[in-house]
Design brief:
mainly alpha; Serine Threonine Protein Phosphatase 5, Tetratricopeptide repeat; about 75% helix
Length: about 375
């Protein structure tokens, strides 16, 4: 069938659906199915899946699948273009039949996105004999992102949002595309600025893998993680629900990352402030960082034994059971002194004995070294 015949058939069937006098979902679906047959984009997609999955004894062939998926894209784009042209030449259609048009364009956009995603995934993962090609995958995901934005439907899904696939390529590398932490972060920043909360999970992962240049992005990351923590804080209600523990963990983790970044930027007072916040929200290990800062000081912070003892004593009081590690730390501070706090061996021995009574083997050895007491039970 020639393009002219297709156009004529399309106009005829389109006119019939837009002159039927009603506008409901069934009519919209029938219209989509009719256009789908005229522009023939379902069959190529089904053939592509046969080649991708090797169905019915067919040898898997990624290049054949790409060929048929390209035909699918061509057919969907042709259907969209023909419908747009028909609407443009019939001014009353858009006003009188918004339901049919919305349903048609929604379904067409969904099919278009799925086809782009399938092609991009073949190039990203290297499927069925196709070598991974990061450049082609990136171009396709960029196009997919444009479609999602134009449709206003770029939902925050870890697996389906194009931006996160682009981040994945730059974070892990793909074919000729080398690992590029800076580009990965730039796309994550786009995602955050669009309001996608799941971008923070990617950001945490890249940060933990040390793929982010703190000198370049440190202050931006601080701002983003504090914003994320604040949103999570606002989501906490007075009700004790199943997600409260998870939410508090996410807040604590965000504060701890902020603290670590400040520490790397050599702002020790700010680092201390956020390590304390991380500890407050339940981070099990933040207190160690707090203790190190109070104990060792830094470029713009003096060691403070009194504050350290106050902090550890309060933390110990909050524990359901006595924590021998914290008691040992207190003993060590008294033994060695800290900042303006002078050593106090008598106090040190008192706390070493308390820790040893709880089974702390390091405390037992200390007692043996300092007094020759050895194991006390």
């Amino acid at each position: 069938m020639s393009n002219l015949d297709i156009g004529k058939t399309f106009d005829e069937i389109t006119a019939r659906y837009f002159q039927s006098g009603y506008d409901d979902m069934n009519q919209a679906n029938e219209y989509f199915d009719a256009v789908e047959k005229i522009c023939n984009f379902t069959m190529p997609k089904e053939i592509a899946e046969i080649f991708l999955e090797g169905k019915g004894g067919v040898q898997p062939d990624g290049y054949k699948a790409l060929e048929y998926l390209a035909q699918t894209l061509e057919g969907i784009n042709k259907a969209i273009e023909l419908t747009k042209n028909f609407v443009a030449s019939n001014e009353d259609v858009e006003q009188n039949y918004p339901g049919i048009l919305k349903r048609f364009f929604d379904r067409s956009e969904s099919r278009l996105k799925n086809a782009y995603k399938q092609i991009a995934e073949i190039y990203r993962c290297g499927k069925c004999g196709v070598l991974p090609d990061g450049q082609k995958a990136l171009a396709l995901y960029e196009r997919l992102d444009e479609i999602e934005l134009l449709g206003g439907k770029n939902k925050v899904h870890f697996e389906s949002t194009a931006l996160f696939r682009i981040v994945d390529i730059y974070a892990k590398g793909c074919g000729s595309v080398q690992i590029d932490g800076r580009r990965a972060v730039e796309y994550l920043i786009q995602a955050i600025e669009r309001g996608y909360l799941c971008a923070f999970h990617w950001l945490k992962e890249l940060y933990n893998e040390e793929k982010i240049d703190i000198e370049v992005y440190g202050h931006k990351l601080i701002g983003y993680f504090l914003e994320y923590a604040q949103k999570k804080c606002n989501s906490i209600t007075d009700e004790e629900d199943d997600f409260l523990f998870i939410t508090k963990n996410e807040i604590a983790e965000s504060f701890k990352i902020v603290a670590q970044i400040y520490f790397k930027l050599n702002d020790i007072p700010k680092a201390l402030e956020y390590f304390l916040k991380a500890d407050e929200y339940g981070d099990s290990w933040a207190y160690i960082d707090v203790a190190k800062i109070y104990r060792n000081g830094g470029a713009n912070f003096k060691a403070d034994g009194e504050k350290l003892l106050e902090f550890l004593t309060k933390k110990l009081a909050k524990e359901e059971r006595p924590d021998s590690s914290i008691i040992y730390d207190i003993a060590e501070i008294y033994e060695e002194g800290c900042g303006s706090l002078e050593p106090d061996i008598k106090k040190a021995l008192e706390f070493y004995r308390k820790a040893a009574e709880l089974g702390n083997t390091f405390a037992e050895k200390k007692l043996s070294d300092l007094t020759g007491e050895g194991k006390i039970f």
